[in-house]
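Sequence in, structure out.
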Amino acid sequence: MEPQNRKIRWLERLGSQLPTLERDERKALLEGVAIAAALVPPLCVVGIGLTNDQPSVAMNAAILLLTNLVAIILAAASAFALLGIRGSGTDAGMLPWVQKASLVSSC
């Protein structure tokens, strides 16, 4: 069997299992895939750029990676703030820069 056919069969099996998962499990799976899709490709390009002696490609991919990471963190912080979820020992609320970044990212 060709490798391409194996990949297709594996994806078919995964797709057939999605309806059997509980709603929370499906959400967690999709959230993990979304985060991986945002972080893994730029990270791979950083490695490829470094191994091929193309520092400008690696630098641009690293900037994209950090941008995606910051966006994910700010989106999660904004969602937690909107839902009123606070960590233990945080009586004062969000830091001022987090509040400003949350407002900017929500526009």
